[in-house]
Design a protein that fits this description.
Blueprint lengths: L7 H15 L2 E6 L2 E6 L4 H13 L10 E4 L3 E7 L20 H9 L9 H11 L6 E4 L3 E7 L6 H9 L7 H13 L4 H7 L5 H10 L3 E4 L6 E4 L1 H7 L4 H18 L2 E2 H8 L3 H13 L3 E4 L6 E4 L2
Antiparallel strand pairs: 1-2, 3-4, 4-6, 5-6, 7-8, 9-11, 10-11
Amino acid sequence: MEECTGPLSRVLDCCLDFITRHTRQFEIVVRRKRETISEYPEAVPREAILNALAHRDYGLVGTTIDITVWDNRIEVQSPGPLPGHITVDNMRVEHYSRNPKIMRVLKTMGLVEEYGEGVDRMHQEMEVRLMEPPIFNVTTDSVTVTLLNRSIASVEDQVWLAMLGTEQLSADERLAVFLAQNEMTVTPRRLRQIRPESDAGGILDVAVTKGLLVRTGKRGGSRYELSLEMRLRVGATGIAAQTRKQQMLIEEIHRRGSISTAEGTKLLDESMATTRSLLNGLVQEGAARAEGQTRARRYYPFD
C-alpha cells in the first residue's frame, strides 16, 4: 500500500506516478521516432484523480481516495455520493461542485482548464483509441470510476487513430475507418456486429461524405473501402503499417545486437529497397546507427 499526501499538485503527481509504475508502457516507432505510449490515454487517469480530489466529501473523516490498479483495469474510488443534482446520466454535460474553493484553486494552478469538462474529456479520450468508456458506480458512500484497458485496436493502431483527433470524427466513424484499414473493407453488417445499436448505414454514408471511405458495389451489397486520401495516411504503406515494420526492426536490432538489410528483408518479407528505406529512416531519426557501406552495412542500437 502506498500513500500520497501533501498539497493537491503533489498528491496528483504522486498518484499519476503510481499508475505509471503499475501499468504497461509500450515502446513503438511513430513517424520514425521511438516513443513510449501508455496503456491508458494519459489524460484519463489524470481527470479521474482530479475529479476525486475536487468532488469528494471531505466531511467523511477517516476516508481516503483509493486507487487500485489491476491487470485489466484501474479503479479510482472517492468518498461520498455524487454532489448536488449530478447523476451518472447527466455528468458529461452538467456541473456542480461540492467544494467550489478547491475547484478554484485547481483552476488557478492550471490543473483544471474549464469547469465540468473532465468527465466528457475522459469519454472522448477513450473513444479516440476505441477503448470502452469509463464506468461509474455510485453508492450512498462512494463514487468509483473504472477504466478498462480493452480495445479492439492494437496499440499501434490506437496511435494512428489518435492522430485523427483533429478531424472531429465520431467514435462510430473511427470504428468504420479502423475496420476498413484492418479488414480491407467494411460493411453495414460488420459494423452492426460490433455496435448492434448503431445506424450502420447512416454512419458509413457520413464517412463517405467526409471523404474517409468510398463505396463499392450496389446498395444491398455495398462495401466500403478507405478513400485514397486515407490510404495515403493510414493504408498499407501508411503510418500503421510502417510503424509495425519499424517496430519489428527495432526489436530485432536489440535482440540480435545488429542486423543487415538482408536480415531485415527476410524478417519483414519485404523488398530490399523498402527494408533499406525503413532502416535508414530509423538512423535519420536517431533510433538506430549504421556502420559500413552498401552490402556490408549493419544497423545497431543507438548508444
